[in-house]
Write a structure and sequence with these properties.
Oligomer: single chain
CATH superfamily: ANL, N-terminal domain
Number of helices: 9
Shape: globular
Strand content: 15-25%
Radius of gyration: 17 Å
Strand order of the largest sheet: 7-6-5-3-4-8-9
Number of strands: 13
Mean pLDDT: 93
CATH class: Alpha Beta
Helix content: 25-40%
Distance between the termini: 32 Å
Largest sheet: 7 strands, mixed
Length: about 260
Amino acid sequence: MTPADLLARALQRDASAPLVTSYDDATGERVELSGTTLANWVAKTANLLQDEFDVGPGSTVAVALPVHWQTAAVLLGVWSCGAAVLDTAAEDDGRLDAADVVLAAQDRLAPLEEQDLPELMGLSLHPLGLGMTGYAGPARDFALEVRAHGDLFTPYVPPDPAATGLLAGGLELTLGGLAASAGELAARLGIAAGDRLLVDERTAAEAGPVAWLLAPLAAGASLVLCRNADPAALGSRAATERVTATLGLRIEGFRELGRPA
């Protein structure tokens, strides 16, 4: 099993139900994606990577993005191609030049442009998926290019569970290892099918994509991602979103994953 299989299982359970809901309290935005909508973004991303950059098994795609619904689509798109994600939280990581493609948030492009990178794409992270504004550099605009690609994806070569799937610091996991680790972590944290998890951005960034993205998928849970969370709004948000558990946030009356009841 691979991360692409985890997404496929989520679609089989209920493709129309909310799968990822994303808040940013600094901007006031709220974006909700059903399983179908997220899968469409994943397919478009995978088609873009495969058709434009020949990404497939053996390729490495560097991802310099924050915890965000578009990041979820990018990660799952890379893994759908059978490629490896080079996950970096550093502003200037010397390993990026080993990647075949680099996808970075617009506010991180300037230092990356000074490196000799093979292919560089920028993401505006606009809540509606719009393109970059006020940018005149060499990076290609992910939002503008991804929309031209299809909503269904078929890899030229099916992902191999034994192929490298994630490189993060000193950690290296295969695609199969990602799926297995996600299931194990979900069980250890007590994530159950049908759970709706409120996830703090900072905790998610520290824990990595296995924790904030793949473990909930493996368990059959959905996500409410909170960036720049306003503590005063979290209680009412958890109630409105029918949250059943939290990760990295303590809210009275709600189960906090990883802590004894």
